[in-house]
Amino acid sequence: MIQALFNKIAPRYDLLNRLLSFGQDQFWRKRIINFLPKQTDLNILDVATGTADLAIMILKNAKQVAHVTGIDLATNMLRIGQEKVDKAALGACIDLQTGDAHHLGFPDSLFDVVTVAFGLRNMPGKEQALSEMKRVLKPGGRLIILEFSMPQNAFFKAIYLFYFRHILPFVGGFISGDQQAYRYLNQSVETFSSKEIDSMKAYPLCFGIATIYVADKLA
Known about the structure:
It contains seven helices and seven strands, in the order ααβαβαββαβααββ. By secondary structure, the chain is an alpha/beta fold.
């Protein structure tokens, strides 16, 4: 269902991300760069890469990164992502491929960093997916997760929920032609449990609308 949903909204996905987040989605992704290790020639796996926004942003702004492999189940998203990669002339540094976070087709200890931006809550087997991400990390490697979260301030939380429950589904549905997809978005955020990543260091963004989670794999 999730795969079909994202394939359907792929043509309008980037536009709606910018519009519905008031451009903050790009700012949040760029903040991930601050948490990348400082050593050179980093090899990164971007899980649930979608249209490759994060992969492209990392290659353009983090000089210590040599290569990013992006995986996603939604082939329509990857097709748009590949067009963006080619336009940015980053084809030699970014490899996009179909892949399932629950069963990563890579050997153990291959990547210096694994990133996931707004994808973990869509994975039905979160614990298995996280276990796979840790498996493919090198000893001392870093897992970085960017995900929507719930503001703690009661007043701000009320405004946030009203927007997510009423305005976002209407606007998203009108532009994308699939209101159910944007109903799913607010429902997935509200029901997302962070217990799988509670042990990670958390860095809230924009009053807690989104959070960056960071953990290093023990050597």
